[in-house]
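[agent] plan:
  1. take the single chain provided in the ticket
  2. run structure prediction with default settings
  3. attach structure tokens to the ticket
  4. add a short note for the reviewer (M.T.)
[agent] executing step 1
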Amino acid sequence: MKRILSLFLIVAAGFSCETELDPNTRISSIPLVYGLFNDADSVFYIRLGRTFQTDTNIQKFEIPTDSLIWPNAQITLERWFQGKFVEKETFIEVPNVKRDSGFFPSSPCQIFILEKGKGNSDYVYSGISEDLRLIIDLPCKPIVYSEFFLISPVAMATPRNSGNTYNMFDFSVIFKAYSNYTELYVRLHYLNRYADTTTSEMVSWREFHFHDIVDRGIGKDFEIPLEGIPFYERIGKNIPEDTAVFNRKFEYAEIIINCLDENVYRYNESQRTIPSDQAGRPFTNVVNGMGIVGSRYNRTITILFDHRSMVELCSGEYTKHLKFVDW
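[agent] step 2 finished; step 3 output follows
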């Protein structure tokens, strides 16, 4: 028994000395893919990059072009419905696109586009909840892909609008299903009139938000009332009092809607919770790569108040101290 144990220890010791970590070993480049698809956009963009390794200060290192570009890359967008392939379209690479300001602003960045309304890509605007698959074919690399769906457009309900004006005592916004994170901001534009000058002012506040997965199915929407006394209470609290103001003139209001799908929401949360100077890998839904491919929807609705709404703004209990006039 002792001989067997001794032999085992000698063999184990021999193997334990064979493997060493070489910190200078070069790591193969990993594809970086970024794409945020907005149902309201006329062009879809994909940014394709790659990781690299350097021994010098990253802020002083000049990267050669071949360290950023994937030659002969092919990107396609496939539509699937109920698990069955329907059709696909091919992205076109746009040459000579410069990066935004930041690290290596003079280096090129691969951008691919898919335009709407030129015999292609109209299918992604159908409004039907279908799976989309982004496929990236790189020479000598495993297929890079990501699955997502488009967020449906946001509809606005205005039961008692009269022309271009809206009754803020009966106003609501309807959100379509399939949005993971949704927020609604109100932005109010107005003029401050002083004795010798007039200034243009703006105030905004977040009226509503949620971050739960919403999947109520087609035809099942979510309505948010934005009306009446609570609306005027928030106006009164968010516009600062100014004793030097002679009067105020309302110009227009904006309803700003931002929606993100679950992938983009989780990616943003991971970026917020993992500082760039600490170890940790952010969330990614890109297989055989890194980055984020997802859907967002942004819409800004401009509204004017009708007569009743203006009367409440100028002389109502919660806003009369702000000195708004209806002329």
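[agent] step 4 note for reviewer: The first strand starts at residue 31 and ends at 38.
[agent] ticket updated
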